[in-house]
Specification:
This protein is mainly alpha-helical. The chain is 64% helix and 7% strand. The chain contains 3 helices and 2 strands, in the order βαβαα. It has helices at 14-30, 42-53, 59-82, and strands at 2-4, 36-38. It has a two-stranded parallel sheet. β1 (2-4), α1 and β2 form a beta-alpha-beta unit. The chain is globular and about 40 Å long.
Length: 83
């Protein structure tokens, strides 16, 4: 799965194009399905959670937690599609 970055109004950006190109390359090289998942506000959500914990954190911590939110969102969408 690859996170799909977009602008604040949902528009495609240069980062969107880079992520889509990466996903296409990953599909071609692996021969496996690669899903794109909207990553809107996950970094902000992660930073807010980390601030609330009251411990020091860095950008890598924000990115790692945001990635878990992206995965959770994708898993939830898959479960919803089965209902």
């Amino acid at each position: 799965m690859v996170g799909l970055p977009r602008g604040m109004q949902g528009q495609h950006t240069a980062q969107t194009a880079e992520a889509e190109a990466f996903a296409k390359s990953l599909r071609a090289q692996s021969g496996l399905p690669v899903h794109m998942q909207d990553e809107a506000v996950t970094s902000k959500q992660a930073e807010d959670e980390l601030k609330g914990r009251g411990k020091p954190y860095g950008k890598g911590d924000i990115d790692a937690l945001a990635a878990t939110y992206i995965l959770q969102d994708w898993l939830a969408s898959q479960e919803k599609g089965r209902s």
